[in-house]
Amino acid sequence: MADITITHTRAEGTLLEGSAKGDGAFELVRSFGFWFSRSLGCLYIRHSRDKEAQHWRINGAATALREAGHGVTIEIDEDTRRTFAEAEADREQRAEDRAERFSDRADRAASSSDARRAAADNISRRFEFGQPILVGHHSEGRARRDQERIDTNMRAMIAESERAGYWSDRTRAAENYKAHRIDPQRTLRRLDRLKADLRKQERAHANAVEKGWVSVGRHARLIQDLTEEIAHWEQLVEKAKADGVKLWGPDDFAPGDYALYAGSWYGVARVNPKTLSIAWNLRLAPKQVMSLEDATLNGRVSTHPADYTQVQGRCPGEAMNAFLADGKVPGKKSAREASEAAPADAIREAQAKAKAKTPKKRTDPKIPKRIKVECRWDATEATLTWLNGNNQPHKGHPPVTITAPDWVKFTESVWSESLLSQVTALLTGAGLTCGAGAWTGGPGRGIVRAIEPVPEAPAVDEQPTPEPPAVDVPAMVEDDQAPVDTPSEEPAEDTAGSEQTASDLRFLSNHPAPHGESRVSHSVYPLNTTPHSERPDTMTETTATAQVAEVTETAPAKKAPAGKKPKKAPAKAATKKAPAEKAAIEPTKVSKRREVAAEKTVATRAELKTVQKTIPIDRIDRDPNQPREIFDQAKLEELAGSMRELGQLQPITVRYDGGTRRYTIIMGERRWRAAGMAGLPEMTALVMHGIEVDSREILAMAVAENVGRADMTPMEEAKAFKRLEKGGYTIDEIGGVCGKSPAYVGWRMDLLRLCEPAQEAVAKGHLSLNLAWYASQLSCDNQLRFLAKYARGAFNSDRDAEAFVKAARIEEERRESQGSFFVLADETPAKPGDVQESLPGAHDVPEEERERIIADRSKLTKKIDKLSTAGEILSELATADPEELALLLAGVAGGVGAHQHRIEHLRSLTTKVIKNLRDAQAIAAVRAGAIEINPDAVAPVVPAEVDAA
Prior knowledge:
Helix 16 (633-646) packs across helix 17 (669-678) and helix 18 packs antiparallel against helix 19 (714-726). The protein has 949 residues and is of the alpha+beta class. A hairpin with a 3-residue loop joins strand 7 (264-271) and strand 8. The protein has 30 helices and 26 strands.
């Protein structure tokens, strides 16, 4: 047995000396990471230099050797070390040696690959391309050996080529080692990591000293190593700065600038010590210039941290706006010049001065700053917590428990209208309202929103002038709008209901609704799929504009007592009391309030007002301009059965006509029909006031409601699009309103060129849309004749019919260019023994051309007759046994795959030939028996005597 010594120094690593080949020591210590090195002449642990001793490996190897009978001595010296600069220089030198060594290996592998390919080519030159092995011939054996040699060489060539690529990649990696290590940007990131490790070791060292642990020396050595390494890399960074390399930092940017990051310019929202907070909107990425406005949603800017080491340039905000105004995007050079003209420190100073001039808004600490609402799924109670400026529960305002009404559950804490309407009512009672921004948070975390006191209305100076006699002011109700408080129209609502409506309005005014949708009826949160109007016991009459809410709160209309009619002010008295402008009397506080209410009411007349209410079904009329003309009776009966059981789940949208005091449907005729079939006496509807009868908005809403439904026919869509076009919409606007592409809209509108029978065939599904569109390009007469042929089954498929229509259109255009027009024949009966000797359109072909066509026809038919031989061959191959084919074709050049490729090539050619013949058949069918009418032709003169006879 041998005496083995295991030594470890920071300079040399872990070495195992005293072992010889065959003594079994290597097999014992191999599992502990030891390996043999020819350059060292002993066993060693790889990657152990410049590192601490791995005691578990050393002790494990020593134990295994001792158990085998070897004598083992362990020597560990942690103080003998080399400097970090020496170790880094050694690593760079070894990287250069690796690059040279790997390059030689890559060259040898590439040369071997080329030699193998040349050997295979030399062997294959003895064979003609495609020559099969002659079975039974004296050359069969040599040919098979040559094939094996070619295969062996080609496989070796591929393996050597892959090996050459591997060593080439290793060579590039070794060559780039030094450049990667000394790159300033990477070095800065490395320094951040090293400094964090240094702070960690310093804390661990202090803790070990305090508690007297034995790891004090280990932490001290690691601190020494990290300090030396940090000093080395900092020296490299300073050298790069001295050489002119730009290293970006927080002093180089100001909020509002643009930073070049990942190839695009991004607006800078905040400047942080380590990163920039840049505008970020994935929906617009990639974009050459992304401003802060592009990343703003509901008043909040979405940002992304950009490390300074990955920033490539800076451009001031004003300079970027100037570039964009000229339609340009700055490059690095232009941005650098603009940055030098407007340095970041000057911009920061200007921003600081502007900020100092703005007085800081102080708030009362006794008033909560935010609210947090929490509840569970399908809960009947929710908790409202008042928060202070630090997002902590406010000490002066205890939490409030909100109870759901009967038969109502809070389905979700986010955007649940039944919950948030009560939250708004609580805020209103406390003199608070929702602030700017949107609700934040989500399921399981609760939702939070900023609140603020309700702004006080400006005080009106009271004048000492005497108050004029009180005059009853009737409630202002427009003639063309639905009366809100008249007892004859709807039952009067109680005070609580009015307050709830006003609070709902204040809440909903903070959430703008999309065009054509009501802010009252539908929830904004995508996870809550139940609209507000579909929930039982919550269908109240609410107004969807904030202006109406202000009028209702400021000057509510007086209601007449029960059983009495409201008084009307006499018109004469109003006329007599109208003062002149020169003798105007300063109004008192009461009259001023009435005048303000009247002005707001007049200003609201032109506004679009939406009211949700319950209407008797017999007062609702269908829209005569409804885009849908056909309703599936079976589906209506299904919907009627559902409404009979569950009631109405979604309100319809109607327009109020002040002249007839009736309602006209805008959206929801199918629900209205089903409600009538179900026997419902009344329906919940969103009533829209202030809309003209033929307004573009009503037309667009009706069309957008129906377009895209599965049961709407293409002709109904086409007519609806045409109505929008007549209403002043362009093709692009129609596509935007209906959610369709402009090409789709134009394609549908082209169907209106079809004659009435063709449109009816499309509506009933007897004629496909693609074929109908091609048929719409023909004249009306030719459309009718084509439909007759199509109905008789004159075409084998729609492709044949499509080719026929295309040929007919081409023929129409050709005849139109010649000054005549073209009409398809009704039907061309086949003649006995007809072999198509006549020429299509023979009246247009000169005699010489006719002879050439007949001669070429004879040649072509002879060639086509030769295809019978190919048909026999294909028939034989189609019925052959695949195993027999494999045995017969495997030995030929290319094998079965080559013949399969030939047949596939023939198939592609056959497909093209079939298409050409189909088009030719369509042209021949169009021209055969067609009628040409020349309007310029002069009728022959009839002699007078013949006419007299």
